[in-house]
C-alpha cells in the first residue's frame, strides 16, 4: 500500500494484495486506515485511485469504501501485452 500526497490536499493511493491473501478483508482494512491517516495526519481532503477496468475485485473494494468513479481513460496502459483502460475513483475525506 502506498500513497502520494500532493500540495493541494489531494492524494493518490495504490495497493497490491497477493492472490493467496485476497478476499480476507486485508485490503479493505488497510485502505480504511490509510484514508483516515491521510486525513488526520496530512490534511488530505480528496483521495484518488486508478484501477484497470477489468479488475472487478479492486472496483468492488473502492466502491465499498465509498469511492466514486469519476472518469475512464481509454488506452491508459499496456498490461500483459494488450492495451488496458482505467477508471479513476475518488473519495472526499470528511
Estimate percent helicity: 25-40%
> What is the CATH topology?
Aminopeptidase
Please write the string of helix (H) and strand (E) elements. Answer: EEHEHEE
Please state the structural category.
Answer: alpha+beta
State the distance separating the first and last CA atoms.
Answer: 21 Å
- Global shape: globular
Low-confidence stretches: none
Please report the number of helical segments.
2
Rg of Cα set = 13 Å
CATH superfamily: Gcn5-related N-acetyltransferase (GNAT)
Strand arrangement, major sheet: 1-2-3-5-4
CATH architecture: 3-Layer(aba) Sandwich
Number of beta strands: 5
CATH top level assignment:
Alpha Beta
In short:
The chain has helices at 26-42, 56-64; strands at residues 2-5, 10-14, 46-52, 68-79, 82-92. The protein is of the alpha+beta class and 94 residues long. The chain has one domain (2-92): Aminopeptidase.
Protein topology:
Layout: E1 2-5, E2 10-14, H1 26-42, E3 46-52, H2 56-64, E4 68-79, E5 82-92
Parallel strand pairs: 2-3
Antiparallel strand pairs: 1-2, 3-5, 4-5
Notes on the structure:
The chain is α+β, with helices and mostly antiparallel strands. It has a single domain, classed as 3-Layer(aba) Sandwich (Aminopeptidase), CATH 3.40.630.30. The chain is built from two helices and five strands. A five-stranded mixed sheet has the order 1-2-3-5-4, with helices on one face. The chain is globular.
Amino acid at each position: 500500500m502506498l500513497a502520494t500526497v500532493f500540495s493541494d490536499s489531494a492524494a493518490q493511493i495504490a495497493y497490491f494484495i497477493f492472490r493467496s491473501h485476497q478476499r480476507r478483508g486485508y485490503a479493505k482494512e488497510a485502505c480504511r486506515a490509510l484514508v483516515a491517516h491521510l486525513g488526520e495526519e496530512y490534511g488530505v481532503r480528496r483521495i484518488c485511485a486508478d484501477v484497470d477496468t477489468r479488475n472487478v475485485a479492486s472496483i468492488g473494494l473502492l466502491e465499498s469504501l465509498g469511492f466514486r468513479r469519476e472518469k475512464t481513460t481509454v488506452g491508459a496502459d499496456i498490461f500483459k501485452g494488450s492495451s488496458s483502460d482505467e477508471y479513476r475513483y475518488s473519495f472526499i475525506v470528511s
